[in-house]
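Inverse folding, one chain.
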């Protein structure tokens, strides 16, 4: 600034004094605001409605010149990374539940004096838990990784807790199943001693496996709900219930197939209880979650879950009607096993589908934000409708 020029404040005061003395017309002309050249409308002309401005209630704020942006995704990419799990994890969900349900069936047969039911449950539990170990190790890539998870016991991690549950259940179920071979051993020598010791040891091991079975049947539901996958995470109250019911129904299916109708009473009761839990939980996840229920009703997941419900209903009906028919009981047991497969794979595919579509992440977040701000959720906004794909 030149030292000869007056300060800005002094020049502004002189301008204000001149404006007061000479009037605004001197600087803006008749009917205009001083210094801006913006004409005032004549008094006999109706004012023109201006576009609404977004911001203050008195009309201030930024003028809305463009419509609200419609969200798709960032360069067409999903917001969440879809689970890298493949079919072997879905199979692991089924075999783990089958092992738990079969073990509980075997304990029921042991406590009620039904040897065929006990034997079928123990053998099926060992076969299923062995398959579970294979599927889990196949997903991990190296058997040593399962061993490494045993270095830590972390109660806040469903994976860590599940590893210890599987470690406790597997040997107990295996020992109970091996005890079923005691009658085939010779009566003398070392094998004769094993023949006498295995039955009581097998009884203890069978009850221990049955005690661990509820945790084995439900922890996988907690594991899925603990992820960021929208349709899994939002269904955290229902997934353990669905998996528990599916485990009971699959164990009942084993009993209906392998045991004669005279000994299959506990299996039939187990089928009714498991079907009730599974159907209730499936109904909840398909109706309670709002937009996040959609992945369970369309596509592969929807077809699998509908087939699972139909097979479950057919299996329970056959189990109740065919109390004296070995063939009908076996068909009912097969239907219950197939229903458990469909249910586990349906839940798996529904969660994967929700992670791949950005709307299942963004729309619920916007609704929660509106609710926090005291606004009404707008389900008719962009991305709130069914997935066109």
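Residues assigned per position:
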């Amino acid at each position: 600034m030149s030292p000869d020029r007056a300060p800005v404040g002094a020049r502004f005061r002189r301008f204000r004094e001149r404006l007061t003395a000479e009037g605004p017309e001197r600087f803006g002309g008749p009917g205009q605001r001083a210094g801006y050249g913006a004409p005032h409308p004549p008094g006999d002309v109706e004012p023109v409605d201006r576009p609404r401005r977004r911001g203050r209630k008195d009309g201030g704020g930024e003028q809305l010149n463009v419509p609200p942006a419609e969200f798709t995704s960032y360069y067409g990419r999903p917001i969440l990374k879809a689970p890298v799990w493949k079919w072997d994890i879905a199979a692991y969900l089924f075999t783990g539940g089958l092992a738990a349900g079969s073990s509980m069936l075997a304990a029921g047969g042991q406590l009620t004096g039904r040897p065929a039911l006990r034997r079928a449950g123990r053998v099926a539990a060992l076969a299923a838990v062995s398959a579970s170990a294979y599927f889990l190790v196949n997903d991990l890539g190296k058997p040593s990784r399962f061993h490494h998870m045993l270095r830590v016991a972390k109660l806040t991690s469903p994976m860590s807790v599940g590893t210890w549950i599987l470690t406790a259940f597997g040997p107990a179920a295996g020992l109970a199943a091996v005890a079923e071979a005691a009658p085939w051993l010779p009566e003398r020598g070392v094998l004769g001693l094993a023949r006498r010791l295995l039955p009581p040891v097998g009884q203890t091991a069978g009850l221990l496996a049955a005690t661990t079975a509820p945790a084995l049947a439900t922890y996988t539901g907690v594991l899925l709900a603990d992820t960021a996958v929208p349709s899994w995470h939002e269904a955290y109250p229902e997934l353990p219930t669905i998996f528990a019911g599916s485990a009971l129904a699959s164990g009942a299916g084993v009993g209906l197939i392998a045991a004669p109708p005279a000994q299959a009473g506990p299996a039939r009761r187990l089928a009714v209880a498991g079907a009730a839990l599974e159907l209730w939980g499936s109904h909840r996840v398909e109706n309670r979650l709002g937009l996040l229920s959609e992945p369970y009703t369309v596509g592969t997941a929807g077809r699998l879950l509908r087939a699972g419900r139909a097979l479950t209903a057919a299996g329970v009906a056959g189990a109740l009607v065919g109390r004296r028919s070995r063939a009908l009981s076996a068909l009912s047991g097969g239907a219950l096993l197939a229903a458990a497969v469909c249910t586990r794979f349906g839940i798996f595919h529904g969660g994967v589908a929700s992670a791949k579509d950005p709307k299942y992440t963004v729309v619920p977040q916007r609704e929660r934000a509106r609710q926090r701000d005291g606004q009404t959720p707008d389900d008719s906004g962009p991305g709130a409708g069914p997935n066109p794909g």
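Residues 30-39, 379-389 have pLDDT under 50 and may be disordered. Residues 1 and 77 are 55 Å apart (CA to CA).
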